[in-house]
Amino acid sequence: MSLHTLSVAELSAGLARKDYSAVELTQHFLDRISLSNPVLNAYVTITAERALADARAADASRAAGTAGVLTGIPVAQKDIFCTDGIRTTCGSRMLDNFVAPYDSTVVERLSAAGTVLLGKTNMDEFAMGSSNETSWYGPVRNPWDHSKVPGGSSGGSAAVVAARLAPVATGTDTGGSIRQPAALVGISGIKPTYGRVSRYGMIAFASSLDQAGIMAPSAADCALFLQTIAGFDPRDSTSVDRPVADYAAELTTPVKGLRIGIVKEFFERGLEGPTGALVNAVLEQYRALGAELVEVSCPSLPLSVPTYYVVAPAECSSNLSRFDGVRFGHRCENPRDLMDLYKRSRGEGFGAEVKRRIMTGTYVLSAGYYDAYYLKAQKVRSLITAEFKAAFTKVDLLIGPTSPTPAFDLGAKVDDPITMYLNDIYTIGANLAGLPAMSIPCGFDGHLPVGVQLIGPHFGESRLLSAAHAYQSVTDFHRRIPAAYV
Amino acid sequence: MNQQSVDAGWEVVIGLEIHAQLATRSKIFSSSPTAYGAAPNSQANLVDLGYPGVLPVLNREAVRMAVKFGLATGSTIARRSVFARKNYFYPDLPKGYQISQYELPIVAKGTLDILLEDGSIKTIGITRAHLEEDAGKSTHEGLGAASGIDLNRAGTPLLEIVSEPDLRGAKEAVAYLKKIHTLVRYLEICDGNMQEGSFRCDANVSVRRFGAELGTRCEIKNVNSFRYVEKAINYEVVRQIDVLEGGGKIVQETRLYDSAKDETRPMRSKEEANDYRYFPDPDLLPVELAEDFIETVRATLPELPDEKADRFCSAYGLSRYDALVLTSGRDLADYYESVVRAAGGIPAAKLAANWVMGDFSGALNRDNLEVATARVSTDLLAGLLARIQDDTISGKIAKEVFESMWADGASADAVIEAKGLKQITDTGAIEAAIEAVMAANPGQLAEYRSGKDRLFGFFVGQTMKATAGKANPAQLNDLLKRMLAP
Amino acid sequence: MYKATCMIVKAFSPLPVPIMSLTRPQVEGIAHLARLQITEAELPVYVDSLSKILSFVEQLSAVDTGSVEPMAHPLEGESQRLRADDATETDRREKYQANAPSVSGALYIVPRVIE
Predict the structure, then answer these.
(1) What does the pLDDT look like over A380-409, one tens digit per residue?
(2) Least CB–CB distance from C85: residue in B60, B91, B143
(3) Which residue of chain C is at minimal alpha-carbon distance from B40?
(4) A207 vs B282: CB contact, 8 Å cut-off?
(5) Using a CB-CB distance cutoff of 8 angstroms, which residues of chain C are in contact with residue A98?
(6) Which CATH number is C16-62 given?
(7) What angle (nearest 5°) sits at the alpha carbon of residue B311, between those of residues B309 and B314?
(8) What tens digit of pLDDT does each residue of A11-60 get?
(9) How far apart, in whole angstroms, are the C-alpha atoms of residue A315 and residue A364?
(10) ipTM for the predicted complex
């Protein structure tokens, strides 16, 4: 039985039955990583020693009778989460030598639950990108087709899960960085409600948009892990003090009678071809399951991309000012003076896309432009949010595509920022409004996976996961593994 | 105000920005200690250092202290205030931005009355007071072409108090500064230690012809004593008038005061106007203050300096000047009142005032002590006053007794006993002493009796000497007059 | 695939897209404010891409936002939590300074700061 084809629940049961030990399970994944990572480039750092130490601790815990559901389950952490004593690069030369002196809350909670850390995954630099091509450590390849991108910014985590180089991976989503790669590699990925998961220790890109989430083959896998990382953290002022539902227990809530909103603006001209057909098939599937499909309209949604590309760069331009070569991170050689230290350290440490966004952000916040750009964008954001809220008075969930296209060629869109930005057309709205959203696989365009997106109301993770689970109970796209990685 | 400048038709316009370090135990956004004088970088945690992934959490006490200040100055307390990022690069500013307040400060539109030299009262407007974090410190000692950064101070809470440009000269500015200084210490929100930098002042100075528009102002930064504030402003006023009278224009700039040369000069690093790109900090939520929070703070307000001074005037019959001196510090005022109570109440009020303002304060200053560590307690001082009032000792002898009390911690009675300083009030004994002096000085006696009145003092002195200063002065006077008479 | 994206661009940009053009000095000014060194060779590339991005977001200016309040964050109805004033952190200078590029006498060393 190939351990890497088992779900988290199955692995948990297997470990409990002692069919295999955590060490054996971990070694299984470490072997697969050694074999496949050189091609996929999905891991930046493989923490083999730490993984085996975690695994031994998990086995000991099991022997002592103190094991929990996730004890011994291997996990890959996106390299945006600080891991104490372990290099944390954020996909950037700026942090190439940075060893985090603390654990982020997400890492802390997963460690406390007994999971095994396999390594840190590759990502677009500072989470800015939709193809994992901006990483200092080179692009990640899509396990379904090595000439294609896996999506981004959580491209490494997506590839890791799709190629089963870990059963689960963490990701972050600011404009679609969990959902879009999940769709491009045919896995499930959930971005929770803003404030549901602590951002402490998660290197900030755009503070009012960033959220940590889970990437795994199925909604059921996501549920188990989300439950563990979610919840109030006093170290994060934007963390909400609200009880976490038992997502796993509520997975089987039936879809019958559920009102699902078809967002008109998502389906207007342009969604043609296989993606369109596949998404429509999902609608049919939900109807067959007893859901009621209703058309809703969010007329300001087409403005979500320009809104995002004012707000996110503005926040990131400020968040990235701390990278100055003084206390940590890259420092240029022989700085002539203070100005030189700043300009060269930052000029060398950051890649082009990051610099582009810092400069965009600096511009839109600068004197004379703040009202026209930043303030204006935040107003449009209010409009978009209000429209989503209105939609949720009529329906329980929203549905639409995740990505306009399946995975594209490596290098295809690198030159034109706008074309790249438009990959997030369907996903950005949920970030602007702070809504939970997930992508689940719904078929193939040729050999390339296609995903469908579900968006829920604030703190509607349970509803999202159970609706996704219902779909996954009658389909098997989430179980498909690329031939090279079976 | 500089009389010359008034004569020349120039009006001086000054606004003060005061940074008061709030006396909290921990920093405003982190739980690092705030104690002064610790080893470099021993009180700078990850949040203070601006490490990737860390987040700010607001200190309740800092908020309370700001509200306290607002209530004490009759200000509007914002029920909703917002923290904003002030973005600029400087090595002592780890995040590359300072968390401050911009459009919605916690306190606004207050007033403070100051006493002018001519005895009149002037009301100075307080535009706003807001919370922000302090930066670290840079040092150059022994580092050649480098600077060393200590971030212990980074993150200490500051209350920035901004006055309206209502001050019309250096003296008014100093009066206002001293009043704020007294107030923040009364409120126990700041220790006012200017040497340690916990109370700092920037002065915005401009001049204009009476009736004209506001002139261009210059900011004089970080002057750390009342005396230097006055000198710096005086220098700057003369400098600006000289420039304008010479046909030049004032360049808006930031200047430093050089106390050694008694001049202001431009600060090189702040030469270029900074675009701070303020925007609301997305890591912090708006601060919302409930009515009962504000009322709880109001209940902790002490009697304020002005109220106390008024009460001292009416209750103790003190002059305005004396009342102001005694209420310049809450400790001193409390000490005074305890002494009065212990010395029998109102009848002792004036005597107590003289002693507390005089010998007691003198001893504190000489030995560099605070009221809290004074070597003569209120009871002991009251005891001394009682001995003056009951004529056991004269006022002059009492000074000697006080010094012994201060040095040895003994009571007045113990010292009087030990040194045999009891005043001689026995008429017979004084008469005997006078007779002896008369007999020993026949020449002077004859001269006095023949009209040289001024020799009276000689006999007073001689008799005092003969009685080791213990003769009751009033009795001595009366008896001498009688006995010396021809 | 690219064509599909273009159609979506059109679908999602119903408002006319004005052209925003930044000048070289403007971009140099922004780079300076952001403390980013941009080489002579890179400058035109950034002028071009930044101009494109700003042109793209310019469509927001045509949106009627009337009396809508700007949204600073999605946590409506939540307000800032206040922390108790306890100094719980201990001295971990050595651990934190392990990442520092230049430290001497426990101070972070930088080129001379001129006052």
Answers:
(1) 999 999 999 999 999 999 999 999 899 999
(2) B60
(3) C106
(4) yes
(5) 99
(6) 1.10.20.60
(7) 110
(8) 999 999 999 999 999 999 999 999 999 999 999 999 999 999 999 999 99
(9) 10
(10) 0.96
